[in-house]
Queue: 2 jobs
Job 1
Amino acid sequence: MSKLKEFFFTSFISMVIFGFSAWMVQAQPKPPIKIGSTLALTGPLSATGIVHKIVGEIAIEEINRKGGLLGRKIEWVLKDDQSKADVARTLYEQLITSDKVDLLMGPYATGAILSAMGVAQRYDKILIHHTFGIPNQAKYDKQFSTWSLGPHPDKTVPVTVFDALATVQNPPKTIAIVTSKFPSIYFMSVGAREVAKAKNLKEVLYLEWDFGNKDFGTIAARVKDAKPDMVWIGDIGTEGIQLLEAMRKIDYSPRIHTHIYPTPGLMAQSPEADGAIAISLFQEHPPFTANFGAADFVRIYHEKAQAAGLPYPLVDVQAATSYSAWQVLEAAVKATKSFDDATLAKWLKTNKVDTVSGKLRWDGEFNYGDDLMKIAQVQNRRWVMVYPKNLAAPGVKLQVK
Amino acid sequence: MPSLNLLIQSAVSGILLGGLYGLIGLGLGLSWGFLGQINLAHFAFVFLSAYLCFEITNKTGLDPLVCFLILPPIFFLVGVGLHWLTRRFSISPLNSLLLTFGLTVIVEAVIQLIWTADFQKLQTVYGDKKVAIGGIYFPFVESLGFVIAFIVAWLIHIVMRHTDLGKAVRAIAQDPQMAAAYGIPQKKISLGMAGLCTALAGISGICIALIYSLNPSQMYSWIGVIFAVVMLGGLGNPFGPLIAGIVIGLSEAVAMVFVNPSWAPIVSFSLLIGLLLFRPGKL
């Protein structure tokens, strides 16, 4: 073989080997992107924590089915914070320093999110979260909530509630405000006192109880004794249902009762809770089911929630805001083509994102945008949106006794 | 000033809740007093029984009161088995605290696995039943819990005070070696006592299922007040926890009439601190 032939042959073989190697490298799957979070999988908040777990699994399955984030599959590093804010703080520290996650997703609920926010701030990580109820405590500029209740929900949410009730035939003139001392609930109830006063609603009773209270009999008797037109029940979990049951046992049923964050399934299924009013971002009917990604999400959530044995397998505000958080993360990564925390945060500050909860923005005070909270009511053992009227379920309106 | 009706209704509510405190505290107090075992798993068994009652009633359509016949014998056997294990491995009273706490966590996880962490509510025909006397309402299920607590405490009191078995139990509690020397079958009796305490947890659980919504982690919210009940009532005294439960329930409920309900728990723990200060040797 001549020198020239040998040179061409060697070059050809080298090119083939190089091309094959390049193809091999290209064909190698990219390493997964690790997203870390904690949820209240045990403890008093676990009933709602399980909803966020199911939603997270659905969101990740969907994103990975579409090829992942920038071609990298999501690996969710999920830990149980036992419904304790201090445990959440430790676990977020672990997620960053030991598990070396690339991105963070928020825990449930306000207390744990506040803890996670402190850790995220220390490591300059972006924190997208779904259920933070006290916006004025969110001082970190790289935190973004999908619990879109505006920067001052203690004012705006009670206004929405009282405005809705002003539209009924015989609006309430007196109010009893009874509330749990659970942080975000208490914050909202204290705001409701001021708004009620401004709206000329006479406060005939104000009571507080500790989270975990067992004796609602006396509270029920005091509400009955005060004879209010409406009861503002600052509740979380089953507190509201326990109070309504205690009222029923002394033959009393309030004409109007509003709730803050009740357990949706149990409230919907309790006979004494028919007519219960609560704030909500999403219910499973038009126009909400036309929101971005809502139809598919609702369908998949039904399957997964039923398989998990949840008694109320319908999408409500918790599931919707949880899914929205994953949609926001996906949108920010896709738009910026980056996993860099600062880049993602900068983009979210200046852009709106379409989610199942509606169009969200974070360019306002405390990185909050619009107060998208509406009024939902239990009617025929199901939550339906009733206010504002243009967003109410077809053929449905706010009902009071 | 609160109305008389409100005051009496609140007192009734507190007394009935106090009965339930007493019923739960009874099993824990007997176990602590007679077996020297601080059985934290008592709370786990209470809630396991509540969930089983929920399941049996929902799946079979049986009246939930039938569970009073089914569940206590099962829990009796569970208690016997657990006590046999602690004896078999010579677990000290302090270690029994750790062991039973671990067991509580496991039972909570199992409950969560089977019935999910979501709240469950047993809907029964009894939920709506109540008796009104002069404008004061007596809810059926709470009243039933109170009556059961009283009957159980009375029966145990009779057995403890007026039977040879009761005397043997008390002898074992005072001096196990001496009791054994007199031919008292210490092992069998302590196994039976452990079974009884766990059966009481089973009975309490059915009452919880009839009255409250269920959530696995709720078991922890009962620990503080029940310990206060047991310590106020005295260890090993059948009527002690019932009376202490009524005192705490009543004082909490009446306090709620005059001050914010969030202040009510302070009452039970103030009573406990007062007792520790003024009757330290009696506990």
Job 2
Amino acid sequence: MPNTTQPVEEGLFVWPSSCDDARLIVSRCEKCGDLSFPRLVRCKNPSCTHELTVEAYLRGTGRLVSYTVVHFPPPPPFVPADPFTPFGIGLVEFPEGIAILGRIQNSPGKIRLNGSARLVLSSLYNKADGTTVMGWAFALEEE
Amino acid sequence: MTAMESVIVAGVGMHAWGKFPNKSFVDLGVCAVLEALADAGIQWKQVQSLHAACNVHSGVAGLLAGNELAYALGETGSRITSSFNGCASSGIALRQAFVDVASGACDIAVAAGAQKSAEGFLAELPCLVPVPLDFEHLRWQAVGAANPAYWALECRKRMVQYGTTEEDLAEIKVILSKHGANNPRARYRKVFTREEVLRSPMVADPLRLLEVCAVSDGAAAVVLCNRKTADRLSAKKVYLRAVAVAGSIFGDPTIRIPFLSAPANHDGLANSESVTSARAAYEMAGIDPADTDAVELPDNSAWHVLEYLESLGMCRRGEAEKLVRDRAIAIGGDLPVCPSGGFACLGEVVSAQGLAQMFELTSQLRGAAGTRQVEGAKLAVAQTLGAMGNSATFVLTR
């Protein structure tokens, strides 16, 4: 990874990292198994006992259970591409028992519901100084 | 809770919703409160508590909305609160006023909400001290998920599960536009055809521009009183039987604003805050939702009408589309939905949503809703929702 890239915020995913094999940082309760993204210090299951969580990583593929295509540029702090092009947002369920919201890397026409979705890192936008800001995203398996 | 005193809606007021560049949010709010007081035949000096919804688009003045209104109306030493629970804020203000009267703490209490809204999508608010890993920030910066994107994600789940069609979503807007056409306080009064709705631009696929509510300026207010006070007033009595507020429940699989994740829990209670506040309100009021004559639900998008008919217990899961296709949700149908025109026509005024619903349903129960009157309405239910899992349900009877 060149040093002109930075994560959108520390603590969301392992960084530096290969873009093709992203690891989201989640917290897991060792007592009840509850997962949180972004991570929490203590377990949020009200039937559990507010144990301190452990850091865990979510990686690999899940299933695209819903998506939308955004046709209008969202307001700041979102930085739209210039010119703006519609983009997909997906909800991906992972076998670990959590669904993650994130941008879809593929073009909107290639989105297929219930398809396989892989966690990746993707550039969100470039800052004025040329630094590329990275976020998590989904790469969908195309037919 | 059990109400110790009957709570009566003595008066309602509502400044028209739209865009009012020459008025402040306080101007709008004062107008609504004065109308509600005049409607009740009560003087401002008689009001013992004022509960306002915060208007988060106007800085500290908006956070202290109750004090701003009380200052402009004349300070009397009465108890003032300002609450924020997203779009459910005015429902919480109403709950405060309801509890004041029901508990016997006050004879007369007022709830009010007023707002001037920034243009465009509801956006991130300025933050003086950043919050680490703040999902309300990250959903914008890292995902670009405006509110309609969240609704669209839930809407598409529904399309897969229950076969909702784009025509169903458009038909909802058509029906609501006919209701709103007869509401002089609504921002949008044009009647749309299904074709016009389906030709409107996509905002967040599958939701189109005409199927999502537009942020607006406006205000609404309600005067509540006990029976002893109401007996001295001339207005037809409308009873507020219940105001119940609930948050969401751990394990709810709904992907709700502003979260970045949700449990992949297919057995969890979806939209749990809505289900919970509705059940609590029905129990408090001792009513069966099947007897409802008119319902104002939070139609932030066309999808919401389907979802909230079900979470409010007005029909079983998966049956809401049939109510739309049968036009049962139109005035004249079995279950008129949003006779005001809903947020689809009124617009979206975050701090006054629930009180606009109160204005409409009180008018309906008085038989004073004019050309949008639901004939013989006796029992009415309203619910408003707020981001992050806030719900407030009201039950009114005549």
